[in-house]
Amino acid sequence: xxxxxxxxxxxxxxxxxxxxxxxxxxxxxxxxxxxxxxxxxxxxxxxxxxxxxxxxxxxxxxxxxxxxxxxxxxxxxxxxxxxxxxxxxxxxxxxxxxxxxxxxxxxxxxxxxxxxxxxxxxxxxxxxxxxxxxxxxxxxxxxxxxxxxxxxxxxxxxxxxxxxxxxxxxxxxxxxxxxxxxxxxxxxxxxxxxxxxxxxxxxxxxxxxxxxxxxxxxxxxxxxxxxxxxxxxxxxxxxxxx
Length: 242
Prior knowledge:
By secondary structure, the chain is mostly helical. It has helices spanning 25-38, 50-57, 61-73, 92-116, 119-137, 141-158, 162-181, 186-204, 208-241, and strands spanning 47-48, 77-80, 84-87. The chain contains nine helices and three strands. It has a three-stranded antiparallel β-sheet with strand order 1-3-2. The chain starts with 24 loop residues before the first helix and ends with a helix.
């Protein structure tokens, strides 16, 4: 049976989705659905039933369909004629190659940012890092992840390269859900915090080569962690069928 928004592995109960305000509805719907995909509420391969999504979010079909077009252009959902919309599901090869590319983009961002970032921007990144540590202490994964990703985003912005920025955003959107899931183990939170401390130190000393190396390895380690989790999940699924 196909997995849809109204079904789940824990007895068919639908995920609880808060209703949306009417202000800036288009952007709100896009952002809300993005977050649901990133946090795994809408899992890869899940079918999006328009009527059910609209009822649960308290919106009409027009803003939902507009939002779905945006998500499709970002590679987060697939819209198939006569079948509907599904949360995109990347193959293992696509995941491997995307992380490989992302490691290079992060490294280049770091090298350029070390040259071009302002003291005020470094201060913002340090504040985000401190907030991330607080989230870690409170076991607040969404808050931790949001600040983690904002730090990487700020480094990319500080590179001051519009072409790099566009490519970075395009590829990173497809990896956000996987990067979020890879943080479920607390040991990984602590290692990431240490690596972010090293990133900040490299920024402050304007050591672009060091920062590039840290960021590249950070993403390659993330890739390896994601692939290991996927293999483990596949093994469990195969064992359950036996």
